[in-house]
Write the structure tokens for this entry.
Amino acid sequence: MAETQGPDADAGSDVPVGMAPALRRPLDQMRILRAAVEFIDTNGLSKLTMRRLGAHLGVEAMALYRYVPGREQLLDGVVEVVMDQLYETTMAGGFSTSWQEYLQMQAHAVRTLALEHPRIFPLVATRPAAAPWLRPPLRSLRWVEDFLRGLREYGFSPVASVVVYRSFATFLLGALLLEAGTLEDLTITDRVNLAFIETDELSAYPIITEMAEQLKDGGYATEFEDALEGLIERVAELRS
Amino acid sequence: MAETQGPDADAGSDVPVGMAPALRRPLDQMRILRAAVEFIDTNGLSKLTMRRLGAHLGVEAMALYRYVPGREQLLDGVVEVVMDQLYETTMAGGFSTSWQEYLQMQAHAVRTLALEHPRIFPLVATRPAAAPWLRPPLRSLRWVEDFLRGLREYGFSPVASVVVYRSFATFLLGALLLEAGTLEDLTITDRVNLAFIETDELSAYPIITEMAEQLKDGGYATEFEDALEGLIERVAELRS
DNA sequence: ACCTGAACACCGTTCAAGT
DNA sequence: ACCTGAACACCGTTCAAGT
């Protein structure tokens, strides 16, 4: 939570001589991007301004422009950082014994990421991707490369692999953008207006009123699993 | 395109006396919201400011605040206006003879709306809904009421109706947010940076390079139909 | 009743200047 | 080499003032 540090390979071991142990080592792009991720996670995207992010890093806003071309590109960088995180947790992990298991594991990795960063996931989901054939949220070239190779190894034809990639992305986008949206509201609310509907207004909708209980039941987790099952069955037909 | 007018019931017939045929009748909320829809459609959300919208209406920005509490609520209103459009085209239309046909027709109506307003659909899809159990993009109370009643009439149980509503919304969100995103880019591009990937960078990804042709094939339309078919089959099992 | 002018606190971004 | 101060052109929003 406090610091995303670790025994990383650029911090402690080989401090360049002459670079005194300053209280604040100079900025660099990665540090800015990670600070931005942290900032959005805790304060929400709408609060992120260049000036506030600078302050968060103990620096004036103008200093950021030496490492980042502008706010839009900063947000692109935030998306990349988060996707890299997905790549590492998912591709480093052990092998799967079947394509079904493989899809399950990838789906859950993306879901975990979406729930860990509910305020960033909308960015991953809706920012224009680097190429028109990339499908958010599965938008990292490395990731797609490995995913397609993975499917190939499980015996999918090239055409089938692409179809699977697309329907997988569509499924994750729909399911997780909704679920992340509900989490977003539970933390600090960006906007409180209209958050709930007046009871008297509701009475104009008898069916909704009658079904209030069923509608309120959350159940996102099992819903995700069921839809994933459905997708896998559809893919199985496609493969035969 | 130019004017969303028609023989509407507040324009010509009963002009209040004393209200001279001024070149610009006074503002009203609906006029502002419709102007905002038009503005986003042609210029994109990021260009919409209170000041520019005022100018578009021949008025200073401050005048808008008499009819709209602020920018956020203006955007909420834009979403509502667009959803009302959906309600009218979809619920006024004739009856369907089967629930399959009913779902098909509703799905295509939402798709048409998304493709007509590709720059507004992301708002419909991602703005927090009025209640946590509403699922964007199917977020209008009237619409949900009629949809649930429709399913009920086709013999779905209350629980099943809710499950169908949810998976239907998830499906539409994933499929159409992606498709709308591609249309958005084809019109005036908000941002051109990184729009396409350098060819040399691509060569680091052999599988992607090899599958370039399959990946580039658009085919959103048939993809939508296939996924819709799949959903309907899953719903059929659920119903039995 | 409806709109405007002026003002406030804030943006993103540029650029010459400081150390 | 790295950061800052001052400035520019813009925001959303408030409020007293105009007609």
Summary: Confidence is low (pLDDT under 50) at residues 1-22, 186-195 of chain B. Residues 49-51, 61-62, 65, 70-71 of chain B lie near DNA strand D (CB under 10 Å from a C1').
